[in-house]
Write a structure and sequence with these properties.
The protein has 285 residues and is an all-alpha fold. 76% of the residues lie in helices and 0% in strands.
């Protein structure tokens, strides 16, 4: 079941990243973050009210609050890095986020078996290759590398924090709600600051109402992925759950191939194959 929920996480995150990437081509990234997360917060608020989730309020919600602070910083750093540098460098480097939850699991005493260690090594290699690493070309700005590492650290930290934010399903809904409210607050503050510096919040022509369903999908897929990852990490080893959940770059690449007819580079196809082999090793180890 750990493998099932973790792979579901990678599917949801991969599709959310694909949708978010498409939306930011037409709408400022900050607006995409605030609107999509705001929709998710409204839906989660209704779920919490309907399930009586407020009764699960407690000290663990500080983990959800912290995840809500870190998440938007990581996402915006990632978008900025993509704008400054080649995706062939930024995307594979961002997958270093898996090191944070894996490291936490090891510190807490998890000791994967030999087959699982091999699976982790193969899957992580496949994830990096699936991002289509740029093996040659012009030098990359130091700022791009720094922003990408900040994003990777942030994504990995959210992985680790969300697993500690609740102990049951009802509490998980409340934790995700708190996380989303914090996301909106942080993203809204960043958007306000950008507007004061002369930035724009909307594309030419006003709010893209036709994109509202896509914005809702991105927000809800992202929050669902956080939920399935928390369940995966609670059911089994965090080291296994984190690696399998990090397969989302493969999903994003395949979505681009299926919906945008983008051709996978040979190195990406090889990465997807390695990721699949690593997944099988982890699931059976």
């Amino acid at each position: 079941m750990t493998a099932f929920f973790a792979l579901t996480t990678s599917l949801l995150w991969g599709l959310a990243d694909f949708g978010g990437g498409l939306l930011t081509r037409r709408t400022p990234a900050l607006t995409v973050v605030v609107v999509s997360q705001g929709i998710a917060a409204v839906v989660l608020g209704a779920i919490v009210a309907g399930t009586g989730g407020w009764s699960e309020a407690g000290p663990r919600l500080w983990f959800a609050f912290a995840a809500g602070l870190v998440g938007p910083v990581a996402l915006l750093s990632f978008y900025k890095a993509l704008a400054l540098g080649p995706m062939g460098v930024v995307s594979p480097l961002a997958t270093l986020s898996v090191a944070v939850p894996v490291g936490v699991g090891l510190v807490l005493g998890e000791r994967p078996g030999l087959l699982q260690v091999a699976g982790i090594a193969v899957a992580v290699s496949g994830i990096v290759l699936a991002g289509g690493p740029q093996l040659r070309g012009a030098a990359v700005q130091r700022r791009t590398i720094l922003l990408t590492l900040v994003a990777a650290l942030g994504f990995g930290t959210v992985f680790a924090l969300i697993t500690e934010a609740s102990t049951n399903v009802t509490g998980l809904f409340l934790a995700l709600f708190v996380q989303r409210l914090t996301n909106v607050a942080v993203g809204g503050a960043a958007l306000a600051a950008a507007l004061r510096r002369g930035g724009t919040a909307l594309p030419e022509g006003g709010f893209p109402w036709a994109s509202l369903p896509a914005l809702a999908f991105v927000g809800l897929a992202d929050v669902a992925a956080n939920g399935t990852y928390a369940v995966a990490a609670r059911l089994g080893p965090v080291t296994v759950a984190a690696v399998l959940a990090s397969l989302y770059p493969v999903v994003t690449a395949l979505a681009a191939r299926g919906f945008l007819s983008e051709r996978l580079r040979a190195i990406q196809a090889a990465g997807a194959g390695l990721a699949l082999v690593g997944t099988l090793l982890l699931a059976t180890g």
